[in-house]
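ping. complex inputs:
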Amino acid sequence: MQFIEEYTAEIEYEISQLKTPKTPTQLYDPIRYFIDLGGKRIRPILTLLGGEMFGLHKKQTIKAALAIEIFHNFTLLHDDIMDQAPLRRNKTTVHKKWNLNTAILSGDVLLVNAYQLLQQQQGNIRELLFLFNKTAVEVCEGQQIDLNFESQNNITIQEYEEMIRLKTSVLLACALEMSAIIAQTNQQNRQHIANFGLNIGLAFQIMDDILDLYADPTKFGKQIGGDIIANKKTMLHLLAIQQANNLQKQKLETIKHEKNKKTKITQTKMLFDQLNIKELATQKVNTYFEIAQQEIKEIDVSQKNKEKLIKLSYFLLDRQS
Amino acid sequence: MQFIEEYTAEIEYEISQLKTPKTPTQLYDPIRYFIDLGGKRIRPILTLLGGEMFGLHKKQTIKAALAIEIFHNFTLLHDDIMDQAPLRRNKTTVHKKWNLNTAILSGDVLLVNAYQLLQQQQGNIRELLFLFNKTAVEVCEGQQIDLNFESQNNITIQEYEEMIRLKTSVLLACALEMSAIIAQTNQQNRQHIANFGLNIGLAFQIMDDILDLYADPTKFGKQIGGDIIANKKTMLHLLAIQQANNLQKQKLETIKHEKNKKTKITQTKMLFDQLNIKELATQKVNTYFEIAQQEIKEIDVSQKNKEKLIKLSYFLLDRQS
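pong. complex structure:
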């Protein structure tokens, strides 16, 4: 969609204009490297679009938008260490390209940088800070719960949804709610836009799980079936366990130890297809997406003002990567 | 000194009252463990005393004081990872007792917790946040420069002083300057109290280097000569290199590889004594200490109001541990 590309380009430009000191180079080179890796820049776009919906110019919300994006980059940088990830957006991760200490410390500085941007945002700074802090803690809690899942069995779908709510959705909600705080709109509007973001976030994250296996390989940026190879407990996996009979459960357990990647993916997919997993997961996506649409409907501004945000939400769900 | 013990106890109590959620336990158990390890609690005491000097009750500065202390704990927790330290205050460090990921993530949450406390501080929150952010970045820069020193030769005394200014002194200055912001005192007073803190910090840190070798072993909490064994480039080491002739420089280089710890310490100390290092370092301490006293003298409040802060500064310099 044309307007999304324009907004992305604008955020890219703003990020390119962020000042990073020259020294110590061991600290600022990785920061510059990491924030220039790009990405969808969804979160800051949400803040800008939220602000415009409430009648603000982009200039009036840009600092908060950048604060959210830099915070998101901080979480990615530290998550890459914890996940021992070699690549981020097809480039070497900071802890691999430099080292562990540099990755920890440059992540710490990115977090403070986010607060520096927030400090420059006009509006009720105490309220913005309260929301930002609360969200930041929740995102860390979500990451911890996700780490716990690696060694935890019998994760319920409810627990999984709580994890993605914390790890992903609250930040999208925060990106939008900040625009409501800056616009000084009423409490109802603020709650509705936050809920819109939260439910889009849940739909988005479950869609991510679906795409990992069912995306169009010619359009998908990563390897298809990566989650299966890594034995990740995704929504697809949890739904499969929920639906499976004892024999199928045993089969799922056996496949986990399959060494041949292609066989592992094919066999899992066959089982998922028997159990109707893609459809069940898609139903979940649709449910959250519909709640989100209901929430934005309730916001007390003109339909015209909501258009871009609604279009963006459809774009996020229709994606193939 | 009686009043210092009272203030320390008060800070300990306030920290014990800080709410930490129960779950995820993997995140909050290490946080609780770490902040309960204790310590001198110098930084928050500085904020309380600064506030009182400007006529504020402790209640009026306690949130900022706690924010500083929690931020300090965040830096210690992450520094312990980077230094691969097994012990902190004679207890197992978080990354050893739990693991790397837990240490990174609980440190991250501590940093956000510091901002949560700051958010609750009365006063000009935007100014407080600006100072806090600036200081936080400087502390991280100081840590990076310190890490660089490990593999760097020919460090100048000026570079070393810049490192300790960033890593240690600016936080002491910030602790005091925040009290000036909260009290809404004039710009001159604010600058003087910040400079007082900065110079006390420099004196304090060089004193730390001296104590590592010259403390009374019956009163010193750690092993005497630990810096020498670790070949740390302390102020003593840098002064020795500055003062040494070529033969003595060679000797210093040779001692670095000595395996016997006792011999290593004794031989280094002999050389330091020949070069008058203890006196030279003490002169530096005294110079910064005197500047600090000059700065506090300039503050436009009654002498009586300055008493506790001056006493604390003497206490910090007279210590044996």
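DSSP finds 15 helices and two strands in chain B.
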